[in-house]
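FAQ: What does the model actually see?

It sees only this:
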Amino acid sequence: MLTKRLTVSESDDGERLDHFIGAHVPELSRSQAKKLIVGGLVTVNERAAKPSTTLSSGDEVLVHVPAPKEAVPAPEPIPMDVVYEDADLLVINKPAGIVVHPAPGSPDGTLVNAILHHCGDELAISGTKRPGIVHRLDKDTSGLLVVAKNDASHRSLAKQIKDRSAERIYLALVEGVPEESQGKIDAPIGRSIADRKRMAVTGVRGRSAVTNFRVKERFNGAALLEVKLDTGRTHQIRVHMTFIGHPILGDAKYGGGKPAKQAFPEEVMAGINALKGQALHATALGFVHPTTGQPVRFEAPPRDDFAVLLNKLRETASPQ
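And it is asked to produce this:
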């Protein structure tokens, strides 16, 4: 149990108790503060109080914050590529082939299990020792992911992801070469009517989805794209690329798994077959640091199998 002793200043005179705690104990949200008050873990001048209690200048507020509960997922010593870390957050370069969060069919061996082992007691999200996952990458997509260590960071990062003020840039190797040098795909995405395990562009309960892309390099039968999202739907980039006829290479689920052998030279096909997942990589991540208020930006080059295929495409490309 952690006890915080707060004295009400003149600027907070007349403030509600739950609002006061939410403002002066950054690791607690207003709803969490209310739960502590209702649970008898907050006193004003050594007396029990209500969330709506009006405070006066000079009042002494004691807040008893329970120690974080043990997380349900078990910590596991899984290696992680940590690009940056401080007391509030960490930025990870996720490899392809690892699931971010435990789920049915993937109860362990996930990125969350690895983070729990790496961070230990540094984590405290909503009173539980768990990481604050504010955005995810598909199992077979690699790249940069930011994780919050505490509630204040979690709220800030989640807001930036939600309002799209955070910068997230992807690189994708796609089959075929788009005619335009850049474009916007504005097409709703929802569960596929034909296969509920897949997402699809659909007008039936589809949610607005917007993907922006720019062609960085053109090859024989393929292209390297830079992709930015205006929305964050499940499998959005993969679904939208397939929708416009340029599925991501190596993406067996959405049609870009193994193109016809005659489509590419033998060495390129070998590179495609060696992919450990779809050729999609979150290469850049930028946001405002929750504590310092300063903009930060991180970059990570494509993983090895992606880079090998990219080089093979460059080597076999016709002179432009």
